[in-house]
Amino acid sequence: MSNDFGAETPAVTGVQSPEGLAARGAALAREKLAQAKADAAKRGRLPRREPRRRSAVRRDSGDPQLFGRAIRDLLSDRGWEQSAAVGGVFGRWHEIVGPENALHTKPETLVDGELVVVADSTAWATQVRMLASTLVRRLNEELGDGTVRRVKVRGPQNGPRPAGGLRVTGSRGPGDTYG
After folding, report:
1. What share of the chain in percent tops pLDDT 90?
2. If you ran DSSP here, which 8-state letter would residue 151 be given?
3. β-strand partners of 151
4. Among 63, 74, 88, 148, which residue is least crowded by beta carbons within 10 Å?
5. Are residues 156 and 178 in contact, defined by beta-carbon separation less than 8 angstroms?
6. pTM, full prediction
7. What DSSP element (H or E) covers 102?
């Protein structure tokens, strides 16, 4: 029997089981691996059997070093680890609280375990107050246990609208937007 390209195709006599195909594939893989090792031995490049060892040579301070290690050493020497971690959390606020909450809230300061969060309306301030314990737990997972002990939420800081023009005397505007 031949196909359209003139090559002979074997006649299908029976269908192999999935186990038979898997065993045949594993045997073929072992055969190819043995062949690759034999080729490498001929070239004199056998793969290593033991892991590479790191040398215990201490670098001088003037020697080049990995950037990440240099930054960690600098933060440690100056005592900036906590500040850098807090800055990282503030930078990833949308990931920590979710995109919808991040649109309406932002962290302002973290001093002595108290995180101050500013909300753009009293409704969102109330929402954050209700989720404060969850937020404290989540932030402590990021920063280390006990770093954040309390969340203080501030609503919008807009005062009453100025009088004049089309304003009603004594009106403070929509009541739900003033903290």
Report:
1. 7
2. E
3. 115
4. 63
5. yes
6. 0.48
7. helix 99-104
Is residue 120 pLDDT above 70, yes or no? yes
Average pLDDT, whole number, for the chain? 75
- Is the pLDDT assigned to residue 157 strictly greater than 80? no
Q: CA nearest 153: which of 113, 112, 106, 111? A: 106
Main-chain phi, psi angles of 157, to 5 degrees: -105, 20
| Side-chain half-sphere CA neighbours of 59 within 13 A | 9
Token digits for 167?
């304003």
Please name the residues in contact with 117: beta carbons below 8 A apart, sequence gap of 6 or more.
105, 106, 107, 108, 128, 135, 151, 152, 153, 154
Query: What are 159's two structure tokens?
Result: 């005062």
105-111/114-119 β-pairing: antiparallel
